[in-house]
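User: My collaborator sent over this chain with a note saying "see what the structure looks like." That's all I know about it. Can you take a look?
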Amino acid sequence: MRWMTTLLEICLLRAGPQALPASTSVLALCLLGYGVVDLAAAASSTGLGTAAGVTLFDLAMMVVFVRLLLRLGRRPQRWLQTLSAMAGSGALLGLLALPPLYRLSRVASPADLSAGMNLFWIALFVWGLVVLGHILRHALSARFHTGLGLAILYSFLNIYLAQLWFTPAGT
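Assistant: Without extra context I'll predict from the sequence alone. Here is the result:
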């Protein structure tokens, strides 16, 4: 269970994905945790069927992105630890977002959000990008700005494709 503490250390930028065990069991638990948190987050604003589709898409996108990135970067041996770090840190950061997400689902419109709530969302999104950039930097043995650029690319591509495929036409 030391790997759970390591995930927290990764979120605090004190450890890299290489600190995690290269274990399929750890990877499976991280992916499961990420999937459950992602499903709960998506279900706060949409039906369960759509939320399940978004979650499966998100998981597939993560797996494909990491696999391609590590192959292109000639570091395929870092697969288990990198994907575990992405999924595990995403689950931890997602847990922070769940209570405000459920509160948000009860607000009539986004304009009704307080400045503090908006600042929280921006800070959490930016911190997630920084953590992902940190993970990718270590996975590729690259500079931080390279990892951060890839994190931004991944995040916006994921958001764009999810909205394209899961937003009903005409909305």
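A starting point for your reply to your collaborator: Residues 44 and 101 are 7 Å apart (CA to CA).
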